[in-house]
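Narrative summary of target 7.
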Amino acid sequence: MSELEFIRQIAREAGAILLGRDEGRNVAALGKSNAKDLVTEFDRRAENFLVGKIRARFPDDAILGEEGGAHPGSSGRRWLIDPLDGTINFVHRVPFYCVSIALEVNSVLEAGVIEAPALGWSFHAERGAGAFRQTVKHPAGERLSVSDTATLDTSLLATGFPYDSATHPQNNFAEFAALTKMTHGVRRFGSAALDLAMVACGIFDGYWERKLKPWDVAAGALLVAEAGGKVTSVTGGRFFCDEGEAVASNGIIHSALLAAVVDVRPQV
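Modeled conformation, tokenized:
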């Protein structure tokens, strides 16, 4: 089994863990940093499963997971795992949630997989080999390409808000309001990984967000890049998933999107 097939397989199996919930009721959840930053038994079960599988096959690799923290390694390779991106959606039975797994080698993203089991979407990408999605309609997979929308005012965007938006000045409210007025609209689905995957599909023309974690954006950023799009920091610099911010687009509207986000970005 190739490395990418291994990642896709364990993502599917982790997705099956998430689908094992009782759909008739909301899932019990605990707050972590605050009442909006939730964790469930399914987050933990899926991450423990993924870490166990990766550790068994690649014992010298480092792993950074949302729930279990950092597992050191000596190989120069690092796995970035979000076992359940969109936990609030999951708790409330909204189907926009996913498993996100990315592999970095010497700080370069090499492979990424996003599995959205309730939607029936499976995404994967390898550096230099393109980005793909499997669905019920396209079980063999379809190659992804970003949109060809030419202007910001005709764009549909996506974003998200940090868990501490009620108390922190960097809450993305000003940017959201400004970009909503300037475009066809801004959607907020509650999963950074799926927002980026939908930029790669050409559904959204652009996305921005700050106060992110590496596991939120690593796989999705690779999907966008491999689908022909562009991903940078909020100021237009090189994207690093550890820096906590990202602007992604079809590339055509990127400069205009950056300018709009920076223009209203609060200085704190």
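The first strand starts at residue 30 and ends at 31.
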